Amino acid sequence: MAFNSTDLLEDLIRISHLAGNVIMDVYGSDNFDVVTKHSDDFDSPLTRADKAAHNVIVDELAKISEYDIVSEEGESHIPKTDPYWLVDPLDGTKEFVKRNGEFTVNIALMSKDRPVLGVVYAPALDVYYCGDAANEHAFKIEKGERKDIRAESSTSIPKIVVSRSHKDERTHQLLNSIGKHEEVAMGSSLKLCLVAEGSASLYPRLGPTSLWDTAAADAVVTAAGGSVLTFDGQSLPYNPKKEILNPFFVVEGINKPVKWRLMA
């Protein structure tokens, strides 16, 4: 890969901030222009903030590289270059519409269909999670302060991340198989980031997600020493030429793996 990962990560922080600004402009308005997006399998909500953030990110990424850009709101989801960018301009649109602040800008650099750099920015919380997976360096920026993070949970009782908007019966069964634990509800890709920073031990996902929902946070988790795995123990696959939807997966930290069981 012929790029400087440190410089590119700084670019992604800057670009995610610009996208966050236009998102927050809409967030502070009286009208989100919410419509239902029937082009995916989830009937996801779409707002003018999604489109505005997409435009900012695409324009800015084009200034720093000639890599193809695969965005949730783009016209084509088939990359023509390697590396390429994988982007979700506004992840957690349901949380955005609810005004609970748990939504993010996700920008990942993919190489050989693996997330190697990623920034997850929560503009309402003004928190960045950043990961350089190749160099195993992850950090968080909060209130302007940078702090390295590792996927090491120090709690005696496992903290398990659950989706605030998606929690089905199989997830309940998996959680029951763990035994005593605490649940932390969160929206968007922030769920993966809680494991990356050691605030939680595990995040099982048995609901639908797309590649752009996880790629940036996957880079952060991997850079922090954790793992994002399918339920058969393989790295979460990324190949938009074949499939946009993710299989079910689990995000684990690096210490004291939580024992869980997936029901048939």
Key attributes of the depicted protein:
D-Maltodextrin-Binding Protein, domain 2, Fructose-1,6-Bisphosphatase, Chain A, domain 1, 264 residues, 6 helices, three-stranded antiparallel beta sheet
Walk me through the structure.
With 264 residues, the chain is α+β, with helices and mostly antiparallel strands. It is 29% helix and 28% strand. The strands form four sheets. Strands 3-4-5-6-7-8-9 form a seven-stranded mixed beta sheet, with helices on both faces. A hairpin with a 4-residue loop joins strand 7 and strand 8 (137-142). It starts with a helix and ends in a 12-residue tail after the last strand.
Structural class: alpha+beta
What CATH calls the topology of the largest domain is: Fructose-1,6-Bisphosphatase, Chain A, domain 1
CATH superfamily of the largest domain: Fructose-1,6-Bisphosphatase, subunit A, domain 1
Low-confidence stretches: none
Task: Please report the total strand number as a whole number.
Answer: 14
Give the topology string: H per helix, E per strand: HEEHEEHEEEEEEHEHEHEE
CATH class of the largest domain: Alpha Beta
- Radius of gyration over alpha carbons? 17 Å
Shape: globular
Number of domains: 2
- Corresponding CATH architecture of the largest domain: 2-Layer Sandwich
Tally of helical segments: 6
Instruction: Report mean pLDDT, rounded to a whole number.
Output: 91
Percentage beta strand: 25-35%
Largest sheet: 7 strands, mixed
- Spatial separation of the terminal alpha carbons: 42 Å
Q: Strands across the major sheet, in which order?
A: 3-4-5-6-7-8-9
Helix content: 25-40%
